[in-house]
Amino acid sequence: MTEDTRKKSFLGFDFSTQRLKALVIDEDYGILQEADVEFDVDLPEFRTSGGVRRGEQGEVTAPPLLWVKALDMVMDRLVVAGVDFSTIEALSGAAQQHGSVWWSKDAEARLSKLSPDEFLHTQLATAFVADSPVWMDSSTSADCIALEEAVGGPEVLAKLTGSTAYERFTGPQIRKMFRTKPRVYQAAPRISLVSSFACSLFLGRIAELDLSDASGMNLLDVHSKTWSEECLKACGDETLAEKLGAPVATATALGPVSEYFVRRYGFRPDCRVVAFTGDNSSALAGLRLRSGWVGLSLGTSDTLLLGLQEAGAPPAGHVLVGPTEAPYMALLCFANGSLTRQNHRDRLAGNSWDAFNELLRATVRGNMGYMGIYYDTAEIVPRAAPGRWVVEGAGRPVERPAPQFEARALLEGQAVARRAHAEDMGFELVESSRLIATGGASVNKELLQIFADVFNTPVYVQEQHANAALLGAAIRAAEVWSAKAGVTLAGSEPTVAPVATPYPDAEKIYKPMIARYREMLQNIPKLQQQTNTKTG
Ligand code: XUL
User: What is the pLDDT of residues 76-130, one digit of tens each?
Assistant: First the structure.
């Protein structure tokens, strides 16, 4: 076959908290094969629960060898699924953000001389010096405070690194290791994020961190795109910059796949490995968000993704270096998402969405002035304690609102909050704006209509694949490859279907509600302590 007619496909991975997933797409970005390994079920010998192990003081870790063994397993499942690895032009991956992998001294040498006759996990059994703290870890409050103090306060840190200090961010995690387990810190010549660790397995050497995931560490100056000396100094010693290595742009082909994969699975020797990144950055690529579009993942928590031209200094939420063409991206994780919606559906409408939607239909858009803020769990954006606040049109608190007003107040309140905080991050509505919804609750048409009206923009649903991070990994592999090869791939135009469009009077109704929401926030008790209740 000639170069032009040869079938081309692209491989993506998602090293998420509970499972490892793999996906092969073709030139149309259509899905060819998928495989999945669930850590607790498929690898019970690691004794994880939900993919992690919990300590008594908020520590949450995972053994990196679990992820290595899961890769052995998922590769075998791809073989069984019939993947022809010789058609794969490029591969890339996504991973849970913030987790750190602590490599041993002999790791790099081991990675470079892997025998294709053996599993990865048997050859890399001594490649790590510690279990990996992951994003659910909340044991580093003291380190967060110390880091903020070292640079001149939370606002200064947010301006510099895109976020105030968060327990799960890797800088505070490294600081804790340096402080409490100095031998581990000294024993590891290199530290990876979960994304760059996973990439290393394919490259046969320790991979560079990508700038987008590196922005989830409280260590990167997001303006100069280099490590902040001050932050490094506050979290470790003079060897830290060397341990981390210099980060690279996310859309970088780091090299060919290692010989191990060529000989064991039949990859082409010139198959490109594109830098892996964090799952949220990968989701931005998977949703193929353009300027002025908003990605909205409606899960246990709700996550908002935006492409940005400038890096602001967010009081809540995160600014990351952009993984695609927008220079920056905003990541807003609202702790109260689907679980909170379900709790109140159960309370107001006896466990039934149909009954809940009946309540919504008994009210009008704007809810006759009733507005609510519902935090069943401590909220992150904005940082606030759990509680429930409902007011009527004149702003007076309402003790016992009727169920139909509560139903609408809950959903409108959530959508209004999403828009207000997106605006705080620099989001501006433009003619071509769109909201792209994914996640479990994106099947709820009534909810999507409310989002369409509040954002005054049509809502589309990502239909092609429910897991935007996984799809994004394969798409990024395809796009970096095609840009380099000068080939336009048939799948590069997004295909999404509109499911809700705003009513003409939407802005008149909801714009004032955004101002009222900001006023309500003034009276809500703030959380003094940092919070890490975010769920994926
Ligand atoms: C983001 C975060 C989570 C993880 C989940 O800041 O902590 O979304 O990336 O995998």
Answer: 999 999 999 999 999 999 999 999 999 999 999 999 999 999 999 999 999 999 9
Q: Tokens standing for 75?
A: 């590769």
CA neighbor of 335 nearest in space, from 357, 316, 351:
316
Residue nearest to atom 3 of ligand 1 (CA): 536
Residue recorded with tokens 């830098």: 275
Collapsing DSSP to helix, strand or coil, 490 comes out as helix
Give the CA count within 13 Å in the CB-facing half-sphere of 26.
10
pLDDT in tens, 137-196: 999 999 999 999 999 999 999 999 999 999 999 999 999 999 999 999 999 999 999 999
Q: Which two tokens stand for residue 467?
A: 């897991």
- Please indicate whether residue 96, judged by its CB atom, sits closer than 6 Å to ligand 1: yes
Three-state DSSP state, 384: strand
Q: How far is the CA of 296 from the centre of ligand 1 (A)?
A: 14
**Pocket flag, ligand 1, residue 97 (CB < 6 Å):** yes
Angle between helices 506-522 and 445-455 (to 10 degrees): 90
Q: 268-310, pLDDT tens digit by residue? A: 999 999 999 999 999 999 998 888 899 999 888 899 999 998 8
Q: What are phi and psi of 387, to 5 degrees?
A: 165, 175
For the chain, how far is it from start to end, CA to CA, in angstroms?
44
Atom of ligand 1 nearest to the CA of 97: 9
Q: Is the CB of 9 under 6 A from ligand 1?
A: no
3-state secondary structure of 116: coil
Give the number of other Cβ atoms within 10 Å of residue 358's Cβ: 13
Burial letters 21-49, b for 16+ CB under 10 A, else e? bbbbbbbebeebbbbbbebeebbeebebe
| Closest to 205 (Cα-Cα) out of 110, 296, 74 | 110
Rounded to two decimals, the pTM is 0.92
Q: For residue 216, give the ligand 1 atom closest to its CA.
A: 6
Other beta carbons within 10 Å of 360: 20
Tell me the C-alpha distance between 8 and 90, whole Å: 9
Task: Please state, in angstroms and as integers, the Cα–Cα distance from residue 187 to each residue in 126, 128, 157, 190, 391, following that order.
Answer: 12, 10, 29, 9, 57
Contact between 281 and 264 (Cβ < 8 Å)? no
Rounded to 10 deg, the angle between the 403-424 and 353-361 helix axes is: 90
Residue ranges and CATH numbers for the domains of the chain are 9-275 (3.30.420.40), 285-536 (3.30.420.40)
pLDDT of residue 151: 98
Q: Note the pLDDT of residue 536.
A: 35
The tokens for 107 are 């790791």
Between the CA of 279 and the centroid of ligand 1 the distance, in Å, is: 7
- Tell me the residue type at 481: W
Q: Is the CB of 467 under 6 A from ligand 1?
A: no
